[in-house]
């Protein structure tokens, strides 16, 4: 068994697609109309057959509440691995990404946290 898709609640699918593709550099894999919403998934450009990130609309009240509460408490919704966190941090700053935590060493890892503009805090980590 392996993880093939992981979901991330977003407030606006179009805004999220633009942020995750243009700012973060993920590649759109699927964009399929499903009634009012769409099945939008992205993959890493380094592993286009790998795990898909599904941009899930947060239209369900429980999804909105969950998203709002973890954001308010400063809890990242997910984590992405990077090879060079300082380089990635600088690249994202140049694209206007707002960080809530600069790269910070914690034991054997270094993490940073940014706001995805779609209701989530996202953590990046370098091992």
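-> sequence recovered:
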């Amino acid at each position: 068994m392996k993880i093939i898709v992981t979901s991330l609640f977003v407030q606006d699918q179009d805004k999220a697609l633009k942020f995750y593709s243009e700012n973060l550099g993920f590649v759109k894999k699927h964009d399929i109309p499903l009634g009012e919403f769409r099945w939008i998934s992205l993959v890493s450009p380094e592993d286009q057959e790998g795990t898909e990130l599904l941009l899930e609309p947060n239209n369900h009240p429980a999804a909105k509440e969950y998203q709002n509460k973890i954001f308010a408490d400063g809890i990242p919704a997910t984590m992405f691995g990077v090879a060079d966190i300082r380089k990635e941090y600088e690249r994202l700053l140049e694209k206007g990404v707002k960080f809530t935590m600069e790269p910070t060493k914690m034991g054997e890892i270094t993490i940073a946290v940014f706001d995805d503009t779609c209701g989530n805090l996202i953590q990046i980590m370098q091992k």
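Helices lie at 13-23, 61-72, 85-94.
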